[in-house]
Amino acid sequence: MPPRVKTDAEKHAVRSSIMDAARELFIHQGVEAVTMRAVAQRVGYSATSLYLYFSDKEQLLRAVVDADVIKLAQALKSTLEISDPLQRFLQFGQHYVQFALTNPNHYRMMFMTQHPSCDPAFSSIEQNNPEQDAYAQLIGVVTSAWHAGVFRPTLNDPVLIAQTVWAAMHGLCALQINLADDAWINWRPLDTRAQAMMEMCLHGLMKDPSHE
């Protein structure tokens, strides 16, 4: 008898399992070292079967990263509905950190694993679409706060502000993901460090009310 044709739901489940296996391998072995055969072995499929879902490793890698970016964008989406620009900015940062620490492997894949840079021409993500593009969300949130006069008047580049705040958030997340259990470092509680990071950022960014 010929093999049973999989339903769309079954195909989606197989595709997801392949991507999950690939993510684990990319993170722990490095993108260059991972082969399609290794991914196939991890999920219990033949290499030939794997090629029914992804034409090559580059397409598989792109699918994993795109899916993770969209997952991040969806996790941050609710903050965009907050009307107050400053509160939206603060909640965006809190949701970002929460996503990273709840989904460490997705975060590692996007921002802590070396892989080819994203070319918008080959990505399934629509650039600047806030439904899919988490970076566009960040730029929009910071730009709104900037237009509302939240920041110091000398800070006249909202993109620079966004990229600097992102660097601070990433540093907190990356250290927690990689070194949370490191016995060499006497870490202060995560909530305390996160609060201090936000307060220090705000101290440098916010305008002085006495100068209004």
Tell me about the largest β-sheet.
none
Low-confidence segments, given as residue ranges, are none
Total helix count? 9
Secondary-structure element order, as H and E?
HHHHHHHHH
Portion of residues in beta strands equals under 5%
Mean pLDDT: 91
Shape: globular
The gyration radius over C-alpha positions equals 20 Å
| Assembly form of the protein | single chain
Number of strands: 0
In whole angstroms, the N-to-C terminal distance is 80 Å
Q: What percentage of residues falls in helices of 4 or more residues?
A: 55-70%
Structural class of the helices, strands and pairings? Answer: mainly alpha
Topology:
Elements: H1 8-29, H2 36-43, H3 47-50, H4 57-76, H5 85-102, H6 104-111, H7 134-147, H8 158-179, H9 190-205
Helix pairs in contact: 1-2, 1-4, 1-6, 4-6, 5-6, 5-7, 5-8, 7-8, 8-9
Report on this model:
The protein is an all-alpha fold and 212 residues long. The longest helix is centred in the N-terminal third of the chain and has 22 residues, at 8-29. Helix 1 (8-29) crosses helix 6 (104-111), helix 4 packs across helix 6 and helix 5 runs antiparallel to helix 7 (134-147). It is built from nine helices and no strands. It has helices at 8-29, 36-43, 47-50, 57-76, 85-102, 104-111, 134-147, 158-179, 190-205. The N and C termini lie far apart (80 Å). The protein is globular.
